[in-house]
Amino acid sequence: MRKKVRNDEKWLVTFADLMSLLFALFVLINSFSEIDAESFKRNAGPMSEAFNGNVKASDITYTGKKKKKEVVKEIELTKLNSKSKTPTDPYLLLVEQTKLLKILKVRLKTEIKTKNWVVAIKDESIFISMPGDTVFLSGSAKLTDAVKRALDRMVVVLSEARGPIQIIGHTDDVPISSTKFPSNWVLSSARASSVASHLLSKSQIKKSRISVVGKADTQPISNKREENRRIEIKVL
Questions:
Q1: Which of 35-39, 140-144, 216-220 has the lowest mean pLDDT?
Q2: What is the Cα–Cα distance from 33 to 90, expressed in whole angstroms?
Q3: Cβ contacts of 212 within 8 Å, gap of 6 or more
Q4: How confident is the model over 112-171, as pLDDT tens digits?
Q5: Which domains occur in the chain, in start order?
Q6: 100 C-beta neighbours (distance < 10 Å), count
Q7: Looking at the predicted structure, is the pLDDT value of residue 75 above 60?
Q8: What is the pTM of this model?
Q9: In angstroms, how far is CA 104 from the centroid of its own chain?
Q10: pLDDT band, residue 105 (cuts 50/70/90)
Q11: What is each CA distance from 23 to 18, 27, 35, 141, in whole angstroms?
Q12: Cα distance between residue 187 and residue 167, in whole Å
């Protein structure tokens, strides 16, 4: 008698279970790209248990990618901080100062060559020194037309710098006593203020960046009086 061939299809049940689990795994993995850490921890434990794992949900740490909205917010904050801060790294600060210094020397080349203006980096600051006789008439705080034009060329560069700007007035040791300027302290302060006012009149530099100081004759740099009469600009 011919033996019957048994048509056993029990393996299909196991195969179907396996495919169901793989499909569930695919759905979960796909959803993880959009969920946060808490959702990941809630679902990862049960998934592991479904595959007979021993890992608990509380033992899982999420290290996946952040949501797009979170990344965008971080980028915007980074850009905002980079715009509002002066470079703190000494090398980066020196690079920026050197770049601005070169531009200033080109714009003020006539004053440097013929009027003994000094443009340099001093004490980690951009330093500009202008002899008083090239900026004001004797005993006056009124700017000459020539220096106004020079300041106009300077203001564009100063607006690009990001540090505070200090304008310092100096006089010689010859006493002054007039109704308008009762002392060298008043004269040196008034001269520094005149420079500051002209720079601010161009509306390219914020008022909060500028400070004015009058030193009178307290910081001489030479035995020659004409060299001690000067205006200094420091970009700190």
A1: 35-39
A2: 41
A3: 166, 167, 169, 189, 192, 193, 196
A4: 999 999 999 998 899 999 999 999 988 899 999 999 999 999 998 999 888 899 999 999
A5: 11-84 (no CATH), 90-235 (3.30.1330.60)
A6: 17
A7: no
A8: 0.62
A9: 21
A10: very high
A11: 9, 6, 19, 85
A12: 14
> Radius of gyration of the chain from Cα atoms?
37
Task: Quickly list DSSP for the chain.
Answer: -PPPPP---THHHHHHHHHHHHHHHHHHHHHHTTS-HHHHHHHHHHHHHHTT----GGG-----PPPHHHHHHHHHHHHHHHHHS---SHHHHHHHHHHHHHHHHHHTHHHHHHS--EEEEETTEEEEEEEGGGTB-TT--PBPHHHHHHHHHHHHHHHH--S-EEEEEE--SS----SS-SSHHHHHHHHHHHHHHHHHTTT-S-GGGEEEEE-TTSS--SSSHHHHSEEEEEE-
φ/ψ of 64, rounded to 5, equals -75, -170
Tokens linked to 86: 């002066």
Torsion angles phi and psi, residue 113, rounded to 5: -80, -40
